[in-house]
Amino acid sequence: MIKIGLLGLGAMGTTHANAYEALKGKIDFKITAITDEDKAKTAKFAALTGAVIYDSADELFEKANVNTVDICLPTFLHFEYAYKAVQKGLNVFIEKPLCSTSADAYKLAEAAEKQNIFTQVGHCIRFWDEYEYLRKVYKSREFGSLLHAKFRRLSPRPEWAWNNWYMQTNLSGGALFELHIHDADYMLSLFGEPKKIHAFANDAKEKLSSVIINCEYDTFTVMLEGSWNYSLSFPFEMSFIALFEKATITYSSIHGIKVYPEKGDNYVPVIEKFCTVTSDKVANISSLGAYYNQLHYFLQCISTGKKPEKATFLDGAKTVEFIEKEKASLG
To answer: Which of 79, 151, 202, 301 has the most CB atoms in a 10 Å sphere around its CB?
Structure first.
């Protein structure tokens, strides 16, 4: 049995907990241990799952009956606790970004490679159904060659985090590292690294809170926009527009996905979804879909003994390195 210790029950930890609840009966696993500073949250989750509560991650590592950990701690704590878990020979699923710096990320990836363990980063967009549809049609050339793509991620200020750490750029890296990184990672996973990048930032309210990146490839261009500079009443939206030779595809988390062919009427493509469970309103998350998908993939890899090939630690390190390049290009 896969015995999981869940570290952190903030926005992402709660989302993962909900996804595990939806995964019950699909794979042989159990949440056996949890830790978080919010005792009310841990008590509630322990009552639901039967998990043992630990006062700290270190205590969980030392005493808990686990062979796997799911790390949903703030990014600036990722390296410390992921490295400890790896050294103890535990399987590790960790929220994105893998680490705050590429140096730590590559060190962690190298350490994990030396152990006979399973590891994965929570780059959930790689598992998002509509983004997977875009990947499929790009690879198959169903609509011809790609000419241009634009990815946007716009959010109200994330003031829901523990001790407001998202809004402290020295701890989070700002929207560049915590929000925009989703689209950067997806771009890298689908197209590889661009030949050139041109990055711009608007620091009117907070450093690195709003960024636009133009990326050049051999035969097409990609624009990424990420901002959490919007007022608290502003609705979160992630979206893309992909212009192909024979069609344009649009997606919005508010309005859905649609294909506009060069000839014929526009239509909503049929996309198979493995999880349609809605989520309690946590942060900007309304559906468990991609979170369910990525954790199902990770647990399935452990169950079958096949190492994850999607969102690996090495992938996560490369993405952090790319974000650092973007930051450096801002001057």
So the answer is: 151
Does the domain spanning 2-124+295-304 belong to CATH 3.40.50.720? Answer: yes
Domain ranges of the chain: 2-124+295-304, 126-283+314-329
Q: Is 173 left (phi over 0), alpha (psi -120 to 50) or beta?
A: left
Q: Is 60 exceeded by the pLDDT of residue 283?
A: no
C-beta of residue 323 within 8 angstroms of C-beta of residue 99: no
CATH class of 126-283+314-329: alpha beta
Please tell me the distance from the alpha carbon of residue 67 to that of residue 58, in angstroms, as a whole number.
Answer: 15
The reply to whether the predicted model has a pTM over 0.85 is yes
Confidence of residue 15 (pLDDT cuts 50, 70, 90): very high
3-state secondary structure string, 74-113? CHHHHHHHHHHHHHCCCEEEEECCCCCCHHHHHHHHHHHH
Pair of tokens at residue 108: 């962690």
- Tens-place pLDDT, residues 115-167: 989 999 999 999 999 999 999 999 999 999 999 999 999 999 888 888 888 88
329, containing H or E segment: helix 313-329
If you write DSSP's letter for every residue of 141-207 in order, what string do you get? TTT--EEEEEEEEEEE--TTSGGGGGG-HHHH-HHHHHTTHHHHHHHHHHH-S-SEEEEEE--SSST
Token code pair at residue 249: 């595809």
